[in-house]
Amino acid sequence: MVKQVKRILKWLLAAIALGLLIFAFIPEPVKVDMFTVKKDTLLVTLEGEGKTRIHDIYTVYAPIDGRITRIESEPGDRVTAGETVIANMFPANPQFLDKRRETQAKADIEGARAALSLAKARVKQARAELEFELSDFKRTEKLYRQQTVSKAHLERAQLRIKTLRAELETSLSNQEVMESRLAAAQAMLVQPEEQEEAANNGNCHICIHSPVDGRVLRILHKSESIVAVGTPLVEIGNPADLEVTIEMLSTNAVKVKTGDDALIKRWGGEQDIGARVRLIEPSGFTKISALGVEEQRVNVILAFTDPKEKWQSLGDAFRVEAAIITDKAENVLTVPLSALFRQEEKWSVFKVVDGYVMLQQVSVGRRNDRFAEITSGLEAGEQVISYPGNNVAAGIRVEKR
Description:
alpha+beta; 6 helices; 23 strands
């Protein structure tokens, strides 16, 4: 009896040792990333990078050559069309005269004064002759009524008065011309200090007003200085009239249609902003990529569809990224692109069934940058392996990492 017990114990220990030995050589399950196939909405998008811009930006330029005072406005200040004064301008100061030009200007003044004196003397002469003829005409008219002189004599007296009146008007006009010549000659002697004093008598010599309602975007010329006509001074726009310009490859832009929905991403906020394609510019441009490759790009203009409160922190020329939705599939089976691979020129996945790997061929429909639509080969609720490595093959045991 004791011998039988010992024999049974020996066989039992041998069986346990054999089992442990077999268990030691059984390969451990490979840890993998699993994804559960499910029905979801698939958005097919084209992404691009761009920046915001105000639709209408108005640049205020200097209207004349002259001196502009310091612009007191700051970026962000509100302006009203026709009321807010952007800048004050004064005509440019004259140049200093050298000795020769100064002597010439003084001589011109003396000549203009002499000509003015002569013109005044001619006015006095014409006025005296007219007064004499008027008194003589009264006598002639009295004699005509008494039938002492003929009507022809009276008409010659009337013609003489009209002629003298015309000569008086000519003399007066000549006097005004001489006065303007004297003023012009005196202006040649005006020095910059005198011009500066005359300009400072008024608060605003030439007022430059805002052309539109909005805010000051940029100050292009801040300090007081002499500027040429056409110098840009200030940029003005309405921040509420904001849109997004996305640069896209021309090969992608042809797939976009006006009215397509879009999402503004990676703009700094916590949530994406809804937008819609407003315009696809008909002309492209060449741009050098970071790798030094010439690319043809097209500007796609997006208009915000979400309320202003959601994107009001954005301003002009802020960097954003956008995803334009070119296709949308609802309630379709989706798997990550990382689970798909080519096997004998067909799309396949590694499906997990009861802890074991099975090679499964699938048909792929629409895709975006992260997920793909599965039209056949899988069912909702099944599990597939994402990022399968070289140690994953059909028939091995796996477990979720």
